[in-house]
Amino acid sequence: MKALIFGAGGQVGRALAATAPADAQLVALDRSSCDVTDLEAVTRAIRDAAPDMVFNAAAYTAVDRAESEPEAAARLNGAAPGFMAGASKAAGARFVHISTDFVFNGTGGTPYRPGDPTDPQSVYGATKLQGEQAAAAADPDALIVRTAWVYAAQGANFVLTMLRFMGERERLTIVSDQIGTPTFAPSLSRALWSLAGSQASGIHHYTDAGVASWYDFAVAIHEEATALGLLQRPVAIMPIPSVDYPTPARRPAFSVLDKSATWAALGGPAPHWRVNLRTCLEEIRHNG
Ligand SMILES: NC(=O)c1ccc[n+]([C@@H]2O[C@H](COP(=O)([O-])OP(=O)(O)OC[C@H]3O[C@@H](n4cnc5c(N)ncnc54)[C@H](OP(=O)(O)O)[C@@H]3O)[C@@H](O)[C@H]2O)c1
Asked: I need a labelling partner for 98 at 20 to 30 A (CA). Which of 169, 181, 207, 215 fits?
């Protein structure tokens, strides 16, 4: 089986390569090898690789910057998935796209199901929703997997930012009224490979198990990292409301996803986020 990964340099792109099935032959293209907003380049890459499946892990993920760069976000998140889905379909390859909890407004109080009404509150969320629609329009059999709060042992993410701050500061204030689920990129990637190898199509939800606020997540990072010897001293971690931490983009207050259908398709639930957090921190310690 041959698989092509677009956006291979990002945290999910790298995790997809690292968790690929043993029989998978990979063509991993980062931004410098293929700009996914270039229809010709995308079409050529898919034609040349002749893959059985294509993963799109490329995206405009700078949520706050997207508010002032809506056109760039729309090209990458909104239009490019349609290019990749169309070229994949034309080549007879399965297309797998990754989307986000930010397609919801976050005013709910129970986990969002794949068919629940969308109502993005940010440029990032709106352009990611356009991308879902563009992919599904170009290839009705495309597999679209929404996830949330992704982190890995490398890349730009909350865990690595917290570890840095916790090594430098004595006090941190962290938002406690946004609730979601931290998700370890390799956990997501294993699910993506598994779903890609099944008959699944349309919109699916996948995150790790459990729920947390950013504050809970930060406290857990400190506890687990201290237990592993990655951090040596106490840090006062104080909960604050979102209004005390204004950002250009509005974020959903509650963005827990209902994963029941996906977990049933995968044969069981994902690990709890705290278990995967420990695995990630062990990897960070191992990498030095
Ligand atoms: N991170 C999260 O918390 C989160 C939550 C929900 C959903 N998701 C979704 O998960 C997917 C993967 O995200 P991630 O966390 O792995 O993000 P990431 O680490 O920011 O990776 C995105 C990758 O896309 C690449 N890219 C940017 N512009 C490109 C272009 N024109 N052509 C090709 N590649 C380009 C980036 O390259 P450069 O670094 O060189 O710009 C980067 O390597 C995205 O669809 C994202 O929307 C992420």
From this structure: 215
